[in-house]
Amino acid sequence: MASALRLMPSTATRLRFRPRLSFSTAASLFSPPSKAVLYDQHGPPDQVLRVEDVPPVELGERGVCVKMLAAPINPSDINRVQGVYPVRPPLPAAVAGYEGVAQVHAVGPAVTRPLSPGDWVIPSPPSFGTWQTYIVKPEDVWHKVRDDVPVEYAATVTVNPLTALRMLQDFVKLKPGDAVVQNGSTSIVGQCVIQLAKVQGIRTINIIRDRPGSEEAKEKLKQLGADEVFTKSQLDVKNVKSLLGALPEPALGFNCVGGNAASLILKLLRQGGTMVTYGGMSKKPVTVSTSSFIFKDLSLRGFWLQKWMNSDKSEECRTMIDYLLGLVHEGKLKYEMELTPFSEFNMALDKALGKHGSQPKQVLRF
Which is the catalytic residue, given 39, 85, 98, 323? Predict the structure, then answer.
């Protein structure tokens, strides 16, 4: 790329090693000026966020400058801006955004990782501040990923698909033919659970809300590989397990809703089953009957991806990201998203906030 920069050794030494330039030489390498989504205080995102020019940043010896290609607007991003998420960037002048994909623009002279201008990289584990056009961070933040998948998938591979994969692997030892049950099945995590389970030969029982278009939603999930899809009202029967037909009682359930939707999962779980809660979209508590504990011996667990990624799992995390992007490349993992130019950030934010009704996940395209 004509715009990509890299400090290079002379022709005579290029093939053998990269010289360690002095810091005074490295200090002359800066990122281009950038545009960023900033906020100085917590509050409603459409009130506290602003797009602003930010000055160039010095790379230093081991810094890597990347040009962002795409970054999603996740619910957790909104929660950070609101100030209700457990982990938040420091204020003021915090840059919003947490995951995304970028292209290497320039590297510092002492960088040892095999990163070159033009490579696609993601922050792994994710890192604050992806809603900006250029970013400078230390080399160990960046993980090189394949560039033969759609940019929106590389931008979103970490938070939702990785959550689905970890939950399928971390709580119950499943074998082909086993079943899992989940609510929030039309979410991206829900869609990923269906497809990743299918790859492993695991059956899925899926619960969705009663709403206009629910039959269409059922058909979309079945096209992804769902074995059964029920609306909540369909499960409002005395013998709910009779609806499963030939499917086995699920050993594992995933709850991202809470309230009655969580109770339905508990009813469907087999003896000794486990329900994992990873979200609470209804903002209603999970309530469990005494008999569920005593007579069914059910287990309730929680999952927070950020905690898992921060527990010395960085290399394992990167291996799984490569696996997931491989599935994307093979056409075995897909979900609906909408790319929106960064210049139309306010429109993308309004859609993510639900001001335009139900919308696909918004992904900013830089």
Answer: 85
